[in-house]
Design a protein that fits this description.
By secondary structure, the protein is mostly helical. Helix content is 47%, strand content 5%. Residues 103-146, 155-200, 251-298, 301-351, 353-401, 403-438, 461-507 form the DUF4116 domain.
Length: 525
Amino acid sequence: MFKRDHIHNNNNIDTPQEELDMSPKIKKQKLVPMTCVDEKNDDKLHVHLILLDFSNSSLNVPIHKEILLLKQKFSLQQEGKKKWLLKRELKYQKFFPVEFMNDPEFVLNHIKKFGYGLEFASTQLKQDREFVLKVVQHKGSEIEFAICDETFLSDKEVILAAVKDEPLVVEYVSEELLDDHEFVLQLVKQNGQVLQYLDDMVHQEDIILEAVKQKEQALEYASKDFLKDTKFMSTVFRFIFPELETFDYSNKECMIQVVQKFGYLLEFASDELKNDREVVQHAVTNYGSSIQFASDTLLHDRQLAFLAINEYYGAFKYLSEEFKNDKEIVLQVVKQPRNTTILQHASQELRNDKDVVLEAVTHYGNDLEYASKELQDDRQVVFAAIKQNGKSLAYAFYMLQRDRTMVLAAVQQNKNALKFASRMLAKDKDFVMSLIQYGCFMTALEHHGLGFVGIGYSCSDKEIMLKAVKNDGSALSFASEELHEDPELVFEALQCNGFVLEYSDELYRERMKYCYDDAYLGPRN
């Protein structure tokens, strides 16, 4: 072991005085004796470290300059390391800068905090089984971005870990594994929702039961043959509703209890119960879309209609034609936050009602597709739509698709909206340059250099590409092949925000040197 004992140079240390008296103007800093024990011989070895400060010395100008440069470099590196640590905590949405692409700790932490990131990691990390296993344990869907040549998709440990977090992963699993009955049982025991993505041919009684035991909601995805089977359903309900001694789809008392938890089972109720307002009310309160299974009489019940759409806006499409032309009901449903169209199911009359359409596109821009032709040419309506979703520009009247103000507003909301702009604007180089200033140009390149203009139009234009990568380095990924390797573009992209097409140690070192003043981060594994 080393033992450090800092003392001044006037302490009693067996050191020749001439070694210390180098110059009267040189400040003698510290003499540090260190004791090292030889474990084999139990001998003590003494090491003396003498630190001298030449900063006040006028006798050796070159040394003085070197010391100042060294101090300056050290100071810059400290600032560089601080900058690196701060950038390490940021959220990255489109790519990881090269300094973090091959850093397993950073990539894993980013995935833990933000739910994504393997897509932006280096190829080396994407191919690392142990690293991928750690990733999918936290975010199963990230397996999509692993580079595995089918290896991971046949790896039971990796798949089971991923499925626990994300049942959709089962869609990537090899057919060989899905033919393994015991493995499928393991899958549903990990996550019952897997049943949703399994082919009906795989549905067997024991698999469904295990899925429902793990997740009661998985019952919704069982094949209808099983759901109609009262004997099987009695087995299922034995552990969900222990108080139910028997189960019968024509038993009102049973069905009231069941539809309060599984409203969609109204589909299998007797015709008498489908016409029972109390039963139907409980069903639609739990599962709005079950209104479709109500009797014709109850489909015209206004109160039930409101209950259904309030539980789930999508239930609107199952309402009677009478209610699809009811402005109050339609306004109620289009105001709800949603990710699918409602206007498509409204009457033609209400699709031409500006109040209804304006409200609809404000909450879901793509409802513009189902507005009347007249309202698709209404600037107020179209602007409200593209403000919610820039891509709804696709459904605007063609004259508005060539309107600069409208197009800029659309691409600022969603950069992919640019592909729906008029070809006339795409051919206007000044307009393209203005897009770069708005930070909206990169996605244009994604579509083969303003894809609606023609392949290579902007991708191979170095002037445009240079301006683009200076604004956002990731624009380099949409350059033509010959420009991918252009040293000037590669450097500008690296300098801008650390974007590289593929990780390399050389580009890593260049980035650390340029952006972080060659900060020393310790040994790299």
